[in-house]
Design brief:
Shape: globular
Largest sheet: 2 strands, parallel
Distance between the termini: 21 Å
Mean pLDDT: 85
Radius of gyration: 14 Å
Number of strands: 2
Length: 129
């Protein structure tokens, strides 16, 4: 069993978390131009992550592709505090994110191979590790 912390996915969304409410309201995540901008920022941010954080993100996305219909888990895929439009194709969205981050070089995860942990710690997550 491998430990998996889905909280690391939140680090991919700094681009949106830095926007004000008005900017977020006008950001439709289903529009190709907006997705492109978001994915470029995700890729840039992901490149700054350390190996443990990168592994958590990749494993987390692969895990979620197998479980995207679970609404509770989906809250980890896209931070629930971002007031974004509903993503029309959850599975397709997750696959797009993975393709941007790892150039289509990923294997889907068997959910039974993971145990989910929900630890953030008193100082937050260290994405440099």
């Amino acid at each position: 069993m491998k430990s998996l912390n889905l909280n690391y996915l939140r680090g991919l969304y700094d681009f949106l978390l830095e926007k004000n409410d008005g900017e977020l309201e006008s950001f439709d995540i289903n529009l190709p131009a907006n997705r492109k901008a978001l994915f470029e920022e995700m890729k840039r941010r992901f490149s700054e992550f350390g190996p443990v954080s990168k592994s958590n993100v990749i494993d987390g996305l692969c895990f979620l592709i197998s479980n995207y219909s679970d609404d509770l888990l989906w809250r980890s895929a896209v931070p629930h505090d971002l007031p974004l439009n509903v993503i029309v194709d959850r599975g397709g969205y997750l696959k797009e994110v993975l393709a941007v981050l790892v150039k289509d070089d990923f294997l889907l995860a068997d959910p039974k191979d993971f145990v989910l942990i929900d630890e953030v710690g008193p100082t937050g997550l260290d994405f440099s590790k």
